[in-house]
Every structure is written in structure tokens, then in C-alpha cells.
């Protein structure tokens, strides 16, 4: 990543990222001044800045945390966060369930905002027609939508929604060596991969300390931040061009244009875009994932499989009908909160990705 080097060119300034999640706490030291709660339309603003379990705040910090006060510094600290709390299984209070906006309504609101990127670190197994319609609407408004593929590869390995919808970039999680995590769900709807193991996030809703966690949620946040860095440096580009530049420069050991069921077109490397001032982003109106988004994907696995220990691919179809199930902490996201919760000492830790400093955890309040 070489974050320090990238920040000399771009910090994500001028780019807004809509974070659809469990809400975002704007009062953590690294998010003060970073969260634009006032830009959320009143109809979908219920508890947008009250995070009931810290997940959404952690994703926001990985994207745009400033590192102030010993907090987490995200990959795009110059970007701003537009928060949305969405209706998931984690919202249990009856009153909250009635007032919390649906995922579809939140996507529509984000589509009508000036946020360029919609980051969705959640998943569900059943297609929701309202969500699908909202996704298509957001695509028509020029938004870049990014979602995690899920964390159940070692059990059901079923890539659900929103990652399985057309026009949503599905992101897998990889370690510091570029190997996909064994938990990271794989299949035809993996488009890119990003760091998603051994990263810091808030331990719980008390916001007292950070823990080391893993998950495709975190990879989604890193991919969203990567897009923000590029879009800030190239404000005239379209979502298609930002995505194409990420795909073309992704790290991989197989030929350009071929896709892996485990890492998609490769690991995001925004540095490779930022350091090349003459890079060609391709046509503004041509979808770089036109095959996947147009007629769907299917058939045999394509290109290499970087993780031979995982099972064969299966995922939700692009065009089926069914009831509504959506959850920010579904079975596909449990790794984010329940695996590798290691309390960090007062001395803090330096998280290194690809040899470059990515995020620093400094001394904070005691666990």
C-alpha cells in the first residue's frame, strides 16, 4: 500500500463515502469532523450517528479515520463519511425496527446524495426486489457500490446480497501475503480482494478499545477507501473509470483480464494508479464488469485458485425471487466480531500491509 507515499498525492479529500451499516459514532477521536450526519435525509436518518455495536464506526474509521487522539488512521483520511443505519437482524428493539430505514431505502437516499461511493459491509442470503431496484437506481446515478462476499467459506460458502447483485463490486479478504482468508467466501461474484485479516476495529459498542479482527467487511472498507483515494486524484473520472483502474492495477499472478474465484481480478493497489499520472482509465460509460452485470456468470471456475484448501464455489443467483433477509451481522459476517478479538496493550501496535504502514493503533483508554 505505501500509505505515506500515497498520501503525498491523495488523501481522499473531496470524496464522500456513504457507509451503510450499524450506524457511525461521530465522536470517536479519529472521526471527529469526518462524519456528515447532517447530510442524511431526514426520512432515513434515524440513529444514523448512533452505532449499536461498533461495526459501522469501525468501517468508517478504516476508510476515513484521521488518527487524531491516538485513534485509528484509515486509508483515506481526507475523505468524509455519510452515515446510514440500515435495518438488519441486529436491530432488535421494536421501535427501532419500525424507524430504521430499510437497506433499499438507504441505498436510494445515498444514490440521490453527492456521495460517490456506497460501502456495504453486510450480507444476506435472500434476494430483495426492493434492494435490487435500489442498486440499479444507484448505478444509474453513477455510484460505485462495494460489498463484502461474506465469511462462511468453510461452511456453506454462499455469496449472498448485496455482493451478488449486478453493479455491486464483491470484495474478498486477503492477508498480508496476498493469500485469500480461508473464511472468505469465493465464487463468480468475487471481483476484487483487499486486506481483511489482522486489522484493528473497535471491540464493542462501548468504544473503549480496539481489537484485532478479520472479515470481508474490513476488506470492503479498504476497497472503498482505495476508490476514494483514486477518485480524489481524478475527480473527473466516472465510477466505471475508478473501478477499471483498480481492476487493471490489481495485484495478481495470472494474466490481466482473467479472474480468480478467490481474489477476483486481484488485490487492490491504489498506489499503482496514483503513481502513474498518465494512466488510461478507459471509456467513461463502459462498465468494466459488463459481462458479470449484463448476463450473469456461471459455468466452470475461471483462472487460478490461490487458496487450494477451500471448497468449490457456490453463490446466490443474480436473478431469483424470494423473501427479505438482510443482516449486518449475519452468519457471513461473524468473523468481524467474534474471531481474533485480541486486546491490545497500552503500547499499541503498527499494522503493516505489503511493507507499508497502513494503520497505527496508539495508546488508548484501557480495555
Brief overview, please?
This protein has helices at residues 3-7, 55-64, 94-99, 103-111, 129-140, 216-233, 239-248, 270-274, 290-295, 335-338, and strands at 16-21, 80-85, 117-120, 123-126, 144-148, 168-174, 192-195, 199-202, 210-213, 325-327, 342-343, 349-353, 356-361. It has 367 residues and is an alpha/beta fold.
Mind explaining what this structure looks like?
With 367 residues, the protein is an alpha/beta fold. The protein has a single domain (3-361), classed as Rossmann fold, CATH 3.40.50. Helix content is 23%, strand content 16%. The protein has ten helices and 13 strands. The chain has helices at residues 3-7, 55-64, 94-99, 103-111, 129-140, 216-233, 239-248, 270-274, 290-295, 335-338; strands at 16-21, 80-85, 117-120, 123-126, 144-148, 168-174, 192-195, 199-202, 210-213, 325-327, 342-343, 349-353, 356-361. The strands form four sheets. It has a six-stranded parallel beta sheet, with helices on both faces. It has a three-stranded antiparallel beta sheet with strand order 8-9-11. Helix 6 (216-233) crosses helix 7.
Assigned CATH class: Alpha Beta
**Proportion of residues in β-strands:** 15-25%
Mean pLDDT: 83
Q: Which descriptor suits the 3D outline?
A: globular
- CATH fold category name: Rossmann fold
Total DSSP helices: 10
Keyphrases for this structure?
alpha/beta, Rossmann fold, three-stranded antiparallel beta sheet, 16% strand, globular
Amino acid at each position: 500500500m505505501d500509505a505515506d507515499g500515497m498520501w503525498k498525492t491523495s488523501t481522499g479529500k473531496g470524496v464522500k463515502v456513504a457507509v451503510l451499516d450499524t450506524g457511525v459514532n461521530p465522536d470517536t477521536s479519529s472521526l471527529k469532523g469526518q462524519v456528515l450526519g447532517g447530510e442524511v435525509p431526514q426520512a432515513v436518518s434515524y440513529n444514523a450517528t448512533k452505532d449499536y455495536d461498533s461495526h459501522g464506526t469501525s468501517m468508517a474509521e478504516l476508510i476515513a479515520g484521521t488518527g487524531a487522539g491516538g485513534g485509528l488512521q484509515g486509508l483515506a483520511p481526507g475523505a468524509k463519511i455519510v452515515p446510514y443505519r440500515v435495518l438488519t437482524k441486529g436491530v432488535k428493539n421494536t421501535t427501532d425496527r419500525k424507524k430504521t430505514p430499510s437497506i433499499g431505502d438507504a441505498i436510494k437516499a445515498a444514490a440521490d446524495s453527492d456521495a460517490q461511493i456506497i460501502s456495504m459491509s453486510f450480507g444476506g442470503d435472500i434476494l430483495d426486489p426492493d434492494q435490487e431496484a435500489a442498486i440499479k437506481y444507484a448505478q444509474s446515478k453513477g455510484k460505485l457500490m462495494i460489498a463484502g462476499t461474506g465469511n462462511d467459506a468453510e461452511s456453506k460458502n454462499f455469496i449472498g446480497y448485496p455482493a451478488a447483485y449486478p453493479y455491486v463490486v464483491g470484495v474478498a479478504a486477503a492477508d498480508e501475503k496476498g493469500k485469500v482468508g480461508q473464511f472468505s467466501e469465493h465464487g463468480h461474484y468475487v471481483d476484487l480482494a483487499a486486506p481483511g485479516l489482522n486489522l484493528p476495529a473497535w471491540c464493542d459498542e462501548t468504544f473503549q478499545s480496539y481489537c484485532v479482527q478479520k472479515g470481508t467487511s474490513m476488506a470492503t472498507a479498504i476497497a472503498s477507501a482505495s476508490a476514494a483515494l483514486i477518485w480524489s486524484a481524478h475527480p473527473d473520472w466516472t465510477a466505471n473509470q475508478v473501478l477499471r483502474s483498480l481492476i487493471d492495477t490489481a495485484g495478481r499472478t495470472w494474466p490481466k483480464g482473467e479472474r480468480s474465484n478467490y481474489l477476483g481480478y486481484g488485490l487492490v493497489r491504489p498506489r499503482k494508479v496514483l503513481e502513474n499520472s498518465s494512466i488510461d482509465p478507459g471509456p467513461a460509460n463502459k462498465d468494466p464488469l459488463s459481462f458479470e452485470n449484463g448476463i450473469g456468470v456461471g459455468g466452470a471456475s475461471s483462472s487460478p485458485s490461490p487458496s487450494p484448501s477451500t471448497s468449490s464455489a457456490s453463490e446466490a443467483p443474480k436473478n431469483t425471487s424470494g423473501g427479505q433477509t438482510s443482516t449486518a451481522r449475519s452468519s457471513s459476517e461473524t468473523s468481524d466480531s467474534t474471531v481474533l478479538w485480541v486486546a491490545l496493550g497500552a503500547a499499541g501496535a503498527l499494522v503493516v500491509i505489503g511493507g507499508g504502514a497502513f494503520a497505527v493503533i496508539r495508546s488508548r483508554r484501557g480495555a
